[in-house]
Amino acid sequence: MIIQDKTERLFTLQTRNTTYQFKADRNGVLLHTYYGPRIQGGDLSRLIRFADRGFSPNPNEVGDNRAYSLDTLPQEYSGSGAGDFRLSSLELELPDGSCVADLRYVDARQQSGKYTLEGLPAFFGSDSDADTLVVTLEDTAAQVRVELFYGVFEAYDLITRAVRIVNCGDTPVRLRRAASLCLDFPSANLDFITFDGGHVKERKPNRTHLRPGVQSVGSVRGISSHQHNPFVMLCQPGADEEHGICYGAALLYSGNFEAAVERCQFEDARLTMGIHPFHFCWKLEPGQVFTAPEAALVCSPAGFGQMSRQFHRAIRAHLLRDVWANRRKPVLVNSWEAFYFDYDHNRLLQLAKESAALGTELFVLDDGWFGHRDSDTSSLGDWWPNEEKLPGGLGALSKEINELGMEFGLWIEPEMVSENSRLYEEHPDWVLNPTGRPCTRGRCQLVLDYTREEVRDYIFHALQKVMDSANIAYLKWDMNRALTQVWSAALPSDRQGEVYHRYVLGVYDLLERVRQVNPNTLIEGCSGGGGRFDMGMLYYTPQIWCSDNTDAIDRLTIQYGTSFAYPPSTMGAHVSAVPNEQTGRSTPLETRGTVALSGTFGYEMVLGSLSDEEKALVVQQIAAYKESYDLIQTGDYYRLTAPSPDGAPTAWLHVSPDRRSALLCVVAGQTHAGPPFRLLKLQGLDPALQYRLTGDDTPWPGDVLMQAGYPLPMLNEYQSLRLWLKAE
C-alpha cells in the first residue's frame, strides 16, 4: 500500500509487517525518514535533527543556515560533488568537465500493478498484488532528470527499487555511477553480512560489525561471481534466525556489481547497491534514457528466517517464469560426471536405459556433443552435432531416449568460442579483445562480444537449428570464464565504458529470445556452478546449478548460505559418485540423497554400476522426491542449525503452507568421542496440533517440538536422518 500526502510531499509504503517512508523537504531534497517494523505512520521527518557541523557545507538556497547540510541528512538518492561526501548514488561527467549531481524533487505519480524495465529482469505483479510509485528528481543545472521507481508487494514485505536517468539537455552527459539503491540508517550499530567464497565454495555467510569508513563487496569479473553474491544483509548485532531486525538487499543483475555500506562520522550508515563503477562510463545522448537494474528489499522484524521466507515466497510467485511451475519437475541424470567427454551414442543410451529402469525421467547430455569436441580446447561456437559420436545427430538420440519414457535435455555454452573452431576462424573480431593485444584465455576459451546484435543473431539461429532438430525439454546454459580484455570492435573509443553492461543486456536479450521461441523448454543457469547465481538470472533461468562442488558435506554450507535469499526450488542439486570429484570424500548414498532432495533433484553418476542394494536406495530416493516435491518446492524453509566443523549436525526443516506437514532433514558432522545428547528445537509448526513422526507411534505436540525440542538419535559420521511430520 502506498500513502501519499501531496501537501507535505510525504510518501509512506506500507507492507504487512514493515513501513518505509521518505519526504521531500522545503528545499526539494528527498529525505529518507524511516524503514523498519510497521508503524502507524505520521510524518517521521521530525526524527531528523539539525546542527552546525564543521566542514559540512551548506547548499546555496539555505543562505546562512549552517545547520542544514547534505552531508548530514538521510537521503533517498544521494548525489555527488554538491556537499555530501558519503557514498554517492549518481555521479555525472558534464560537458564542461564538471562532476556535480545535485537532485531536487519535481513530482510523483502512483499506479496499480508493478512497473516493468525494458531489457532488464524485474519482479512482476498485477493490479491486485503490487503497487508502483514513481518519484521524479531533477538537477536543473545539469539538465538531468532521475526517476525513482518503487514497487510494493504488501503480502511479501517486498519493496523493489529501480532508477531511470534522462538527459534533458542538448549535449551528451556521461554517467560514471548510477546506483539502483541508496538506503540511509539513523544508527551505524549494525552488522554487515555478505555471502562470499570462490569456485566450488560459493556463498558462505560472513558477518562483521560496521567499522568507520566503507565496507564493500562486488564483482569486476563481468558476472555476479563465485566470490561475492549480489545479496547482502544489515542487522542488529544480536539478530539471529528468529530474533532482531534485519534488512536483506538484492540486486537483480548478473554482471559487475558493488554493494557498499559506510559507517559515517556521526554514527549513521548508508548502503548503496548497483552496477560497479569499475570501467563503467555510459554516454547519454540528448533525450536518451539509462535504466539501472532493479534492487529488492525485505525488512524482517523477526530475524533472518522470516526475511528469507519472504524472499522465497516473492521469488517463487513474482520472479520465476517456470514452464514447469504447475507440474513436478522430472528426476534427471546428467552425463558429465559419468563420462565427461568420453562417450558415444551407445554408451549414452546404456546410461539412459539403466537410469530409466531406476525411475529417472530426464536424460541430460552434457559437454562434448558438438563440433569435434573431445576436450575443452575446441569447438565452442560450432553448434552442430558430432555425428561420429552421435550418428543421426541429436534427433536420433532424443528419439530413443523418449522411447524409454524419458525426456531429453542438453548442455550448451553459447557465450563462448574456442580458437579451434570454425566460428572463430570466420569471425575472429567477434570476441572481446582490443585490437593488437594478445588474448587472455579462460578454460581454453574466449568470450563472444554479446554487445553486437549480429553475434547474438548468429548464436540464436545456430542454437535454434539444434532445438528444432530434436525434442529438447531442458537446456543447461553454462558460462565458464570471467571477462577480460573487455573491448568491443563494434563501439567507438568513447563508449568502451559501456561494454560490461551491454554484454549483460545482450545475454538477457538472447535468453529472452530463446525462451520466447521455446516456451516449453526449461532452462537451468550455470556459470562453473554458482558463478552467476543471482535474482537477475533467475528471471530467465528459474533454476541454477548451485555449485560444481557436489560433495554432500560441502554442499551443506553452500546450500545453507544460498538459502538466505534464494528458495530451494531454484538450487540445482544432484547426487554424485564417491569418492567425490572435488574433495575425495566418501559419504553414504542416503546422505547424498538427503542433501540433494532439498533442491532440484537428480544424479551425476553411472547408475548401472551401483550395487543392487544401492539401486534399491535410488528407487527409494526417487519415491521420496516425488512424495516431498510440493512441500520442498512451495513450502517454507527453516534453517535449524548452521553447518559446523565441530561435529554438530546440520538440520533444516520444510513446512507446508498450512503447517500440517513438514520434513525434517539432519546430516551429522565429523564423529568425536563422547558426543553429547542433542535436542533439536523445530520451527514453523502449529503449536496446537499433534504431529506423528516417521517411525514414532506416539504423537508430538507442536509446541513441545518447538519449545522443548526433539531428541536426535546418535548418528554416525556423515549419516543423515529424514523424518516426516504429519498432523493428526
Automatic annotation (TrEMBL):
EC numbers on record: 3.2.1.22
Gene3D superfamilies (alphabetical): Aldolase class I (3.20.20.70), alpha-galactosidase from lactobacil brevis (2.70.98.60), Golgi alpha-mannosidase II (2.60.40.1180)
Domain Glycosyl hydrolase family 36 C-terminal span(s) in chain numbering: 650-725
Catalytic machinery residues: D478, D548
GO BP terms, alphabetized: carbohydrate catabolic process
Keyword annotations from UniProtKB, A to Z: Glycosidase, Hydrolase
Record field: catalytic activity: Hydrolysis of terminal, non-reducing alpha-D-galactose residues in alpha-D-galactosides, including galactose oligosaccharides, galactomannans and galactolipids
Gene Ontology terms, MF aspect: alpha-galactosidase activity
Name of a matching Pfam family: Glyco_hydro_36C
Signal peptide interval: none
Family statement: Belongs to the glycosyl hydrolase.
Coiled coil regions in record: none
Domain Glycosyl hydrolase family 36 N-terminal, first and last residues per copy: 29-285
Name by which UniProt lists this protein: Alpha-galactosidase
Stored InterPro entries: Aldolase_TIM (IPR013785), Alpga-gal_N_sf (IPR038417), Alpha-glycosidase_related (IPR050985), GH (IPR017853), Glyco_hydro_36 (IPR002252), Glyco_hydro_36_C (IPR031705), Glyco_hydro_36_N (IPR031704), Glyco_hydro_b (IPR013780)
